[in-house]
Amino acid sequence: MERQNIFFDVDGTLLDSATHEFPQSAKAAIQSLKQAGYRVFIATGRCYASLKRCGLMDAVEWDGYVLSNGQVVMLKDQTLLHEECIDFRAVKQCIDIAAKHQIALSLISSDDWFMMDDGNEYVKIAHQFLNEVLPHQRPYEGEPIITMLAYDSRDADYHEFRKIEGLKVIPAESTYADLIVEGVSKAAGIKRLCAYFEHEDYIAFGDSLNDWEMMEHAALSIAMGQGNEKLKALADFVTRSVNEDGIAYAVNALGLLNENKDNIR
């Protein structure tokens, strides 16, 4: 059997969201998958700079990256395969809504991550969850924006942002939501990488709602045990939590390293 592509979410899947550590068991399992002939990829809501800072890019020899929830796609050497930015009018609308409703907003371009004010307590909570530095403060100067983060309470529905044409709102498992281009998802980025490698089928590991589309279209979808309940109901297999060696457990339980094992539905 030809080995498939495997895509891993980062926060809550590869990284324990409480300790921000990459379990040694997960690293060993992924290295074994590589040795067995699988191609392994990261599919994350994080931008390139954030992923680089968390240390995962150097932990494994990845075959490519889906970043910013599918708006940026890179090959293993960081060659850019695709980049898509939010419409300028939608960016301006988000800025206006954030100011009107006193919602903190950060903006991510190809080379910067910034805020136009000093934020609020939800920003600090979200960046502690991500183990990420706080964005620096500066004005928006009209440059292309790949993605934005709106910061509010965990139960916020971001309804004003949802009204913006061409914008997609993805609440996270913390005090923020990703604001991206409507119609873009991790699944769309994955499709581009699968086409590049001329292998359509893939396996996906995830834990939160921004993994929904990539799980929905996967040949085999695996949800982490501590993950979002709706996502776990969608998944083909629910493994143990990230801090209970969930990736390694799934690899073994599903026989992904077994010879002649057909893992495609």
UniProtKB/TrEMBL annotation:
One Gene Ontology CC term in the entry: cytosol
Leader sequence residues: none
Molecular-function GO terms, alphabetical: magnesium ion binding; phosphatase activity
InterPro entries with a match to the protein in the record: Cof, HAD-like_sf, HAD-SF_hydro_IIB, HAD_sf
Coiled coil: none
PANTHER family the record matches: PHOSPHATASE YKRA-RELATED, PHOSPHOSERINE PHOSPHATASE
Entry protein name: HAD family phosphatase
Source organism: Dielma fastidiosa
